[in-house]
Amino acid sequence: METQRTVVLVEGESDRVALLALAARLGRDLASEGVEVVAMGGITNVRSHAVRWSGAGVTLTGLYDAPEEPQLRRGLRRAGLVVEGRNLADLGFHRCEVDLEDELLRALGADRAEAVIEAAGDGRSLRLLAQMPVQRDWPREAVLRRFLTSQGGRKARYARLFVEALDLDRVPAPLLAVVGPGTRDPGADPATRGSKDSPTQEAP
Question: Are residues 90 and 180 located together in one domain of the fold?
Fold first, then answer.
């Protein structure tokens, strides 16, 4: 019997790295389970990816940021999925309340996040950033967020390091919902797909 394939759609590479790191910590071998985590390169690409990956034997799931929910719903609807009046979590798409970085920083706490950055050799860069006039009066969490976005590749690097530093009982709920043990298979619900005979009309 052919293994059910699952494609997890995420916005960017840092989301992908975080989910792969978490799966490894949980002892899951996503490849052997038929699970592929796909970075879309931005939420605006959700329709094309949903069209590309949806089909017989493929279950679509995903991780997204709360501010992007209207655009996610629009893209999924245009790809033929029935999302109107549905809770996206019931369809396998799980929401970060702000974004991935916010989820990880809240789970770790500022002290532990700073310790991870120090151990990775970037402590001086973080301290210099915190001492700059613009950031001097910012909360530590805001400085940490700015640090993560101030250099290319840093978000993805620390997505992995932060996940590896988490206590497993502190893993953010949306990440656990996507790759945790006992992950629900939304593909069993036929209402998540539009009819092939009557494709969804794109909104203008």
Answer: yes
Contact 154, 129 (CB under 8 A): no
CB of 102 within 8 A of CB of 66? no
How far from 86 is each of 15, 47, 90, 141, 164, CA to CA, in Å? 24, 18, 7, 33, 33
In this prediction, residue 3 carries a pLDDT of 61
Question: Looking at this protein, which amino acid is placed at residue 26?
Answer: L
84 contacts 77 by C-beta, under 8 angstroms: yes
Residues 66 and 33 both lie in one domain: yes
134/186 same-domain check: no
136-163 per-position pLDDT tens digit: 999 999 999 999 999 999 999 999 999 9
Residue ranges making up the domain that contains 144: 105-154
pTM of the model: 0.86
pLDDT per residue as tens digits for the range 167-181? 999 999 999 999 987
Which residue type, as a one-letter code, is found at position 170?
R
For the chain, the maximum distance between any two Cα atoms, rounded to a whole number of angstroms, is: 62
Q: Are 76 and 25 in contact (CB under 8 A)?
A: no
Chain segment 104-126, per-residue pLDDT in tens: 999 999 999 999 999 999 999 99
Q: Total domain count for the chain?
A: 2
CATH of residue 61's domain is 3.40.50
